[in-house]
Amino acid sequence: MEDKKKSGGEFFSVSAEDIRRMLTDGAGPNELGGYLILCRGAGIYNSTAWAEHSFSTRLGITRSQAQKACLWLCERNYIERYKPRANIAIDALVPDPESGRDAAENSQPRTGGHKWIVRKQKQEIFNLPNSLIDGLGTKGPPLKRLLTLIKPKIRSGISPPTARLDAIALLLSLYKAQDIGLYGGIDPDIWRAEWVPMESYNLPALHEVGDTDLLIKQVRRDGEYLSPCFGKEALHYVKDEDKRHMRFLHAFGQLRLLGFLYEVIQVWDCDPVQHERAKILYPLYVCNPSARDNLEPALYKRINAIAKEEYETSYGIENVFAKDDGRFLLAEGYLFRYVCYEDEEDAIAMSVLRLKYRAHDRDTGEGMAEQFRMVEAWEEALRDL
Questions:
Q1: Distances in Å between the alpha carbon of 228 and those of 151, 163, 165, 232, 246?
Q2: Which are the contacts of 93, defined by CB distance < 8 A and separation ≥ 6?
Q3: What is the dihedral of CA 122, 124, 127, 132, to 10 degrees?
Q4: Which of 328, 349, 350, 338 is closest to 302 using CA atoms?
Q5: Is 338 within 8 Å of 217 (Cβ atoms)?
Q6: What are the distances in angstroms from CA 3 to CA 11, 300, 346, 366?
Q7: What is the pLDDT of residues 50-107, one digit of tens each?
Q8: Per-residue pLDDT tens for 240-293?
Q9: Class of residue 140 by CB neighbours under 10 A (exposed 0-12, middle 13-18, buried 19+)
Q10: Are 57 and 149 spatial neighbours (Cβ–Cβ below 8 Å)?
Q11: Which pLDDT does position 255 carry in this prediction?
Q12: CATH number for region 11-130
C-alpha cells in the first residue's frame, strides 16, 4: 500500500460517463470487468493486445463467457476491432502489460498483436491502480478475488451475478470519490464514523498537559453514517428504490469484509461535514494491520506515550493501556486519545474510509506525502513536552 509520486506507469484511466452508460445499457459483471481489463491493457493509449484470454484469466470466467462479453462491448461501440494502418507510429508504442514494461521501455516498434481499440470519453476521468487488475506479489488480481469470493444473498434476490455487478459498480464510484489530499480517503459525506468524548476509569474526557496549552481528549466511537444518496448514484441502474438500497448495503458490506476498504481515524480542525473549509490536522490511527505494517502515517504512538506519562503523574494510574497501540477495550468499544491545542476548540476526531489498492498517480502521491508531513510536524512539536 505504498504510495509514490508518479505521473504514470502504475495506473490507468476510465471515464465515469462510460461506466454509467454501460450500466444503463445493461452490462453485467463480465462486460464491466472486461472493459476495465481492456482499459488497463491499453494504458495511456487506445489500443491493446489483451483480449478474451485476459478476460478469462483476470476475471476467472470461461473462454466462452469472455467471448460473449467482448461481443457485447463491441456491438455497443465501447470497443472496436483493431485495423492496422500504414502509419502505426503511435500504436506501435502501446506498452505491452503482459511483459511488465512501460511505454518508454518499448524501444522496438510493435507492428502486430493489437486486437482492440478502446473507445473512451474524455469527461469525468479518474484513475485506477494497475494492481487492481494485475495483483500484488504472489496474490491474485484483486478484481478476480472480488468476483470469486463475494457472497450473494439469494433470499433477498441478490444472485451471484447481481452481487458481482453491484460490487464492481460501487467500487468504481468509491474510487471516483476518494481524495487523499482533501479527505485522507473517501469523502466523509459518503461514509464517516464519529468519535465523542468519554470519561473512563477515573480518567477525564479532557486533560490539560502541565503548563502547556495542549489538551488530551479521550473519545469513543459513536456510530457511523453511510449516505443513501451515494447508493442511489452508484447503483443508478436499479430502478426500485428499496431493492437498490438493499443491494447497496450488501455490496458495501462485502467490499469492507473482503478488505477493499479500511478505516482511518483523523483529527480535523473542525467538522468537515459542517464546514467546507475544514482541514485535517493529522491522521491518528490506521485501522488495518497491513497498512500499519507498511508504515502509513499516524500519530497515535507519540500521543499514547504522552498520555501514559500524564495519567501516571496526574492521577497515579498505571497500566491504563490494554493494548500496546494505546487502545483500551470497553463494553462500548475501543477508546482513543488525541491531542490538540486550546485554541483548536472545534477540533474533532472522525473516521473516513480508504481504499486498499490505490493508483500511484500524482494526486495520491502528494496526498500521502502531506499526511507524512502532518505527522512529522506534530511529532516535532510534541517531542520536547
A1: 22, 18, 18, 6, 10
A2: 45, 103, 106, 109, 110
A3: -100
A4: 338
A5: yes
A6: 12, 21, 31, 9
A7: 988 899 999 999 999 999 999 999 999 999 988 776 444 444 444 444 334 443 333 3
A8: 999 999 999 999 999 999 999 999 999 999 999 999 999 999 999 999 988 988
A9: middle
A10: no
A11: 98
A12: 1.10.10
Which pLDDT score is estimated for 113? 64
> What b/e string do you get for 115-135 counting C-beta neighbours within 10 Å, with b at 16 or more?
bbbbebeeeeebbbbbbbbbb
Domain residue spans of the chain: 11-130, 180-225+260-382
Residues 281-290: pLDDT tens digits?
Answer: 999 999 998 8
φ, ψ (nearest 5 deg) of residue 331: -60, -30
Q: Which residues pair with 117 in a beta bridge?
A: 47, 80
Residue 86 pLDDT: 46
What would the mean pLDDT of 346-353 be, rounded to a whole number?
96
pTM for the model stands at 0.87
Query: What whole-number percentage of the chain has pLDDT above 90?
Result: 64
